[in-house]
Amino acid sequence: LHDVHAILDACAKPRQLLLFSATLPAPVRKLAKSAMRDVVSVNADGGTVVLDAIEQRIYLIEEDRKTALLRRQLEEFNPYLAIIFCNTKERATALAYELAQAGLPVEELQGDMSQSARNRILRDFAKGRFPYLVASDIAARGIDIEGVSHVFNYDVPSDTDYYIHRIGRTGRAGRDGLAVTYVTPRDIGKLRRIEARIEQPLVKYDHDGN
Predict the structure, then answer these.
(1) Phi/psi at 12 (nearest 5 deg)?
(2) CA–CA separation, 198 and 205 (whole Å)
(3) Looking at residue 85, what is its pLDDT?
(4) Which of 42, 136, 153, 196 could form a disulfide with 110 if both were Cys (CB 3.0 to 4.6 A apart)?
(5) Residue 201 in 3-state DSSP?
(6) Cβ distance 24 to 42 under 8 Å?
(7) What are phi and psi of 75, to 5 degrees?
(8) What's this model's pTM, rounded to 2 decimal places?
């Protein structure tokens, strides 16, 4: 948003302003209200969300068993490239450190990093220099990296749209993808909201894959 405001401040007046956004969370609505006058809204069809190329799995699990399951599944699924999403930058940093300490080739991506550092990490990830990227939701939107075969939601997002944005990092360009979400007992309400949003029940597994 800081960058968008900087660009608006540099633009001539009067002007015609067109704002495009996949979703309209509160900060985007606030931006539109402050920057636009006599607004005409055009909405694309927001009906059923189509995620046909992505297999979605839910694993019902206790919080303290998530990391062990993640490590096991990274070995079993052997992703070409995988993005592992956490809800906060602190969680992303801690998980990336834990995986690195276990000897896994992993990097982290979160909002406290400089833009140059984020660009370097994404460039190296896209080139396959490391297969696992632990990220906060800074990576959930606007990143199109060919070859992301798996997405893991280590944490369930509170915003249902972010679930869609996250898993949309895989199953791109005609390829299939697998999205795995770890759901603890306290996340059941979030899961029900996600299922309502995408208008389909999701297949649920236990820790052992049953």
Answers:
(1) -70, 160
(2) 19
(3) 96
(4) 136
(5) coil
(6) no
(7) -75, -45
(8) 0.80
